[in-house]
Amino acid sequence: MPTTLPALRCIAAAVVAQALCTGAGAAQRLLVNPFHDPFEQVTHGAAACPAPQAPSYTEHDMHLAEHHRVEQGNSCYLAGRCRYSSSFDYDPGIARDLSQRLRAAPALRGSSVWILVQGRFVQLQGCVLDAAQARAAEAIARATPDVQAVLPELRVGASGRLPYAPASSPP
User: Fold this and answer.
1) I want to staple 127 with a disulfide (CB 3.0 to 4.6 A). Which of 25, 49, 60, 113 is the partner?
2) CA distances from residue 81 to 9, 40, 74 in whole angstroms, order as listed
3) Structure pTM?
4) Are 39 and 33 in contact, with CB atoms under 8 Å apart?
5) How many angstroms separate the CA atoms of 23 and 74, rounded?
């Protein structure tokens, strides 16, 4: 039975009403790390280094991210570049391996570095003493098996602008 114009108008009105109730206009709960992406501090040498904000999403943003994550996760496998059916399936192993490598690196003494792993992409956030420490952290991350890309967000030195949002900032 074909859908009539009045029925289509009712469906459209229901979709718009739901969007208005759940969209940007409504107050939404903030979900901290709803995808359980590995996020942890791996070195602890710079006491004054502000912790980065954990990955956080409103419910609306989480639903938008879900589509992207499914597409990104599966496209790697379908293209023959991944052995797992989702690139996000690599993340716990990458985080475990990378955490051990960074903690064991003498070159990173005096730094405070957090890692966030999402779909084989590694974000390095925190504070390092100098550019050599930043390069060392990046090199270790790039050499970790299954890492696709490294996104460094490291403040060099004890002061200056943070290249990431600190935990005390709203998302």
Assistant:
1) 49
2) 44, 27, 10
3) 0.81
4) yes
5) 27
Report the length, in residues, of the chain.
171
Token pair for residue 87?
Answer: 């690139």
Beta bridge mates, 115: 40, 124
Contacts with 75 (C-beta within 8 Å, 6 or more apart), sequence order:
none
Per-residue tens of pLDDT for the chain, all 171 residues: 443 434 334 333 333 334 444 444 456 888 999 999 999 999 999 989 999 999 999 999 999 999 888 887 788 788 887 889 888 999 999 999 999 999 999 999 999 999 999 999 999 999 999 999 999 999 999 999 999 999 999 999 988 899 999 997 655
Report angle CA 161, 110, 97 to the nearest 5 degrees: 95
38, 116, 120, 129 from 56: Cα distances, Å: 13, 12, 18, 28
**Residue of 136, 130, 140, 134 whose CA lies nearest to 154:** 134
